[in-house]
Design a protein that fits this description.
about 400 residues; alpha/beta; eight-stranded mixed β-sheet; about 15% strand; D-Maltodextrin-Binding Protein, domain 2; 2 domains
Length: about 400
């Protein structure tokens, strides 16, 4: 429970030498680069979380391959990883691991090293999701480590099989199933396709108001709440996690980034089911690609690239998958952890998170729409029309 709640901290900063991660492997390691240097690594994993533990384990195994490099590892909130890096890249990290949320923006600002050449020997082994999410205009600006998405967490002993459709889920909630979800534009977007909705067209013009699908999805989620489901605002995520860990909720919609911590709190029978299909098609939550970014503004970028490749190799991805329910980006890595396998199925039906900078105008207006409809009972069609107009206006459309 301590680690589960720790992952929700909004700002945790810690720095230390990589040696603090534990002893290196006893077997002699093949040296990749023997030059003397200092490298700073940033990550957005909360201190004490399963993701941080996996990263530190991988770092310890990689350290002997760069025997004369002194590593400093800094843990920040994920938002701070992006904002601090973008505000002062020259004094920022040499490399950092994060989802591809800001990939296009940071690439266009010239902050990320083009690692296409370094990826030549690895690109063919990536999953299609990872290849798509790691590139802009056909060039690689990240070295993928895993893919992440949303699913319905539940205890297999209490709920052996989750309801198979959105209608069945609604009926189960009416019958007493206690479900929790975050009423936010990220967390509910997977339901849009299930009701025939989409957010943007190929040019990033918002078209969510041109068909009833998005509005119908929000209206459905409102029905879930009226039937007894618990909707939480984005700033109430800690409460949702606590309610699930304490057994006040039977199932919640959340990402595999918390998988290892939920399992520690709830036991080994924790499983995750893909979001159920709706009347029109599959639910398709956003799929994020997480991986290593190399700071183009730092002098040791070539060395940092070698380190990033080592930190994201098949062995490293297997460690993160088995420890923290990451879904490997490399097809050579067998997914043996049951929870990671569940999320691999969810990734397979999801949709890659749009990378265009214009999509950044989606989050805030639609967050407002979701809260007003799902938690407040506002008219879904009107809320979607208002949000879509605001998104297009923000993009000068």
């Amino acid at each position: 429970m301590r680690k589960l709640l720790g992952t929700a901290m909004t700002l945790v900063i810690a720095a230390g030498a990589i040696g603090s991660a534990g002893p290196p492997p006893a077997a002699a390691a093949t040296i990749i680069d023997s030059r003397a240097a200092r490298l700073t690594i940033w990550h957005g994993y909360a201190v004490g979380s399963s993701q941080e533990w996996a990263l530190q384990t991988v770092l310890a195994s990689v350290r002997p391959r760069f025997p004369n490099v002194r590593f400093t590892v800094v843990s920040l909130s994920l938002d701070d990883v992006y904002t601090r890096f973008e505000a002062d890249p020259t004094h920022g990290p040499d490399l950092f691991i994060a989802p591809n949320n800001r990939l296009a923006t940071e690439m266009r600002a010239g902050l990320l090293k083009d690692v296409t050449a370094a990826m030549q020997s690895r690109a063919a082994t990536l999953t299609a999701r990872a290849r798509t999410g790691a590139r802009v205009s056909g060039r690689y600006y990240m070295i993928p480590e895993s893919t992440k998405t949303l699913a319905l967490y539940h205890s297999e002993s209490r709920i052996p099989v989750m309801p198979a459709t959105t209608e069945a889920l609604l009926e189960a909630v009416r019958g007493g199933l206690k479900v929790g979800f975050v009423a936010d534009s990220y967390y509910v977007a997977g339901f849009y396709p299930a009701f025939g909705g989409r957010i943007v067209d190929a040019t990033y013009l918002c078209v969510a108001d041109r068909t009833p699908g998005v509005a119908n999805a929000l209206a459905y989620l409102r029905q879930l709440v009226l039937a007894g489901a618990n909707a939480y605002r984005l700033d109430q995520m800690v409460t949702m996690k606590s309610d699930f860990a304490a057994g006040r909720l039977d199932a919640i919609i959340d990402g595999n980034w918390f998988g290892g911590d939920y399992r520690e709190a709830l036991g080994p029978d924790l499983r995750a089911a893909p979001l159920p299909p709706g009347p029109v098609g599959a639910s398709r939550p956003f799929v994020e690609v997480e991986g290593w970014f190399v700071n183009a503004r730092r002098p040791n970028a070539p060395l940092a690239t070698k380190v990033a490749l080592a930190l994201s190799g098949p062995g490293a991805q297997a460690t993160a998958s088995n420890t923290a329910a990451h879904v490997p980006a490399d097809t050579r890595v067998a997914v043996t952890d049951p929870l990671a396998a569940d999320f691999a199925r969810a990734v397979a039906i999801g949709m890659n998170r749009p990378l265009g900078t214009a999509f950044g105008a989606y989050w805030v207006p639609f967050r407002g729409a979701v809260v007003r409809v799902v938690m407040g009972g506002a008219d879904a069609t009107t809320a979607v029309r208002t949000a879509c107009s605001a998104m297009n206006a923000a993009n000068g459309r």
